[in-house]
Amino acid sequence: MKKDDMKYCPKCGQQLERKMIQEQERIYCCHCGTIYYDNPIPSVAVVARNEQGDLLLVKRGTDPKKGFWALPGGFIDGGESATQAVLREMDEETGLKGIVKKCIGIYNHESRIYGHVIIIVYEVKLTGGILKAGDDAEAASFFDVKKLPSLAFSFQEKAVEKAFGCSLF
């Protein structure tokens, strides 16, 4: 749920209001004094290639962008590092295992469902597993970089181009 959708305080149940705090309008509970900051949601995405250099993509099985091809990825769970999350998400969505090689970049995305999302994109070297769609992916496949489909999110296209060092889209 986005913070803008909150009507009642999760701590005390009283109705929330908007108030200028720290030079920004924020959601505030005047009963218990809790300020609800509109913090971004941390997430990860994977750039992984097979031995032929083809890019690993998943076909999204849920919104946003259901049916579009995308880099494997998802939200970071509580208590989990970003590198743990990227390997978990790749395994859950594709059945493949790997090791993190490097961080490609950090991107911002405004989601109509989740609000502000920060995505940390990692390059991962594949080490094993069997390619199969899982979790919330309809399909998982490798694509020749010269024949890539449009990706679900523009930040992913930027990350892939940065990883490959050239314009692909």
Task: Describe the structure using short key phrases.
2 helices, 169 residues, mainly beta, Nucleoside Triphosphate Pyrophosphohydrolase, 3-stranded antiparallel β-sheet, single chain, 4-stranded mixed β-sheet
Give the termini separation: 33 Å
Beta-strand content bin: 35-45%
CATH topology of the largest domain: Nucleoside Triphosphate Pyrophosphohydrolase
Portion in helices: 10-25%
Describe the structure in your own words.
- There is one protein chain.
- Helix content is 14%, strand content 41%.
- It starts with 16 loop residues before the first strand and ends in a 5-residue tail after the last helix.
- The chain has a 4-stranded mixed β-sheet with strand order 7-4-9-8, sandwiched between helices.
- The longest helix is centred in the middle third of the chain and has 13 residues, at 82-94.
- The protein has 169 residues and is mainly β.
- It is elongated, with a radius of gyration of 19 Å.
